[in-house]
Amino acid sequence: MNDLEELVQAASADFAAALTPAQLEDAKARYTGKSGRVTELLKGMAALTPEEKKTRGAAINETKRRIEAALTERREALAAAQLEAQLRAEALDVTLPGRQRGVGGLHPVSRTMERIEQIFASMGFDVADGPEIETDWYSFTALNNPENHPARSMQDTFYVDLNDEAGRPLCLRPHTSPMQVRYSRVHAQRHAGLEPMPEIRVIAPGRTYRVDSDATHSPMFHQCEGLWIGENVSFKDLKAVFTDFFRTFFETDDLQLRFRPSFFPFTEPSAEVDIAFADGPLKGRWLEVAGSGQVHPNVVRNFGLDPERYIGFAFGMGPDRLTMLRYGVNDLRLFFDGDLRFLGQFK
Ligand code: PHE
User: Fold this and answer.
1) In three state form, how does the secondary structure of 134-186 look?
2) Which of 203, 238, 266, 288 to mutate to test the pocket of ligand 1 (most atoms within 8 A of CB)?
3) For residue 47, what are the domain limits?
4) Cis (ω within 30 of 0) for the bond into 269?
5) Averaged pLDDT of the chain
6) How many domains does one find in the chain?
7) How far is residue 99 from each of residues 102, 180, 240, measured CA to CA in Å?
8) Do 188 and 251 sit in the same domain of this protein?
9) In a domain? residue 207
């Protein structure tokens, strides 16, 4: 192999070894650059005779042409490889399913709360919200449950080591019944002098607290209090409202209701409300779903109303319990553990 042939081989090998356009340009400079090897060869021709120059010149030019051809070929190969790599990196499989956004959902108990609110709203009930840290007075005393009375243990709660601005002791509300009093007092004041006073029809859904913890009791749970007060509101209305509510809530007209005599300090007479389904896994079993009763005259007085004139009923139900029944959940704690595998099923 003569020196020129060797040079072409060496250049081709160098170009092949270049892996980037920059490396290739460096390699090119070593051959056809200002002080490259081809340029050196051309300079070396000065000492040759004219005859030699002709043949040697032609041979060197041919060498240069081949080196440049090799260079161009490598340039194109590198550009093609780069394009290929880029296309591969940006490859998009349009047949893949789209990436979903993690869509949240309502907590099953929140769903129940909304459902309860909708059904009662359709019967003309207002929805009232109130404080979870409540005075002892609204939680018990105003509800005809005096200090130190044993009936307080029915709704034993957590006490806070603080008093409100008026110096009254505070506790975590053990039921949403304080809202009966708060709402009614505002209502009575707002409509003072109006004859007759527009009826009070309100529900108070929200979080409540008690010293209780097992599969069917949680220290934090939910309640929905209801109140209907007017000049002529009776147990008959309570029964109609409840029957309508539970049949709508559980989407069945075959549901049975039972009022079982009970005791609450704030109602007289009082009744627990039980329901029974006509079919399904709980068919025929009486299930306790609410407490209720005719509002006690002392409580009506604390509303700022005349108990000789205004009368009505109140009830308190457990949305957690209703959620368990509606979805067939047997452990209340599942609602509050925050396990997304459980909660995600209700989206
Ligand atoms: N507040 C009662 C409870 O939590 C339920 C109730 C409300 C009963 C209103 C009667 C009337 O146990």
Assistant:
1) EEHHHHCHHHCCCCCCHHHHHHCCCEEEEECCCCCEEEECCCCCHHHHHHHHH
2) 266
3) 2-89
4) yes
5) 93
6) 2
7) 9, 49, 50
8) yes
9) yes
Q: Is the CB of 209 under 6 A from ligand 1?
A: no
Together in a domain, 297 and 215: yes
Determine whether the shortest distance from the Cβ of 36 to ligand 1 is under 6 A.
no
Helix crossing, 3-17 with 21-32: angle to 10°?
A: 160
Q: Is the CB of 157 under 6 A from ligand 1?
A: no
pLDDT per position as a tens digit, 249-278: 999 999 999 999 999 999 999 999 999 999
Q: How far apart are CA 148 and CA 142, in angstroms?
A: 14
- What pTM does this model have? 0.71
Banded pLDDT at 44 (limits 50, 70, 90):
confident
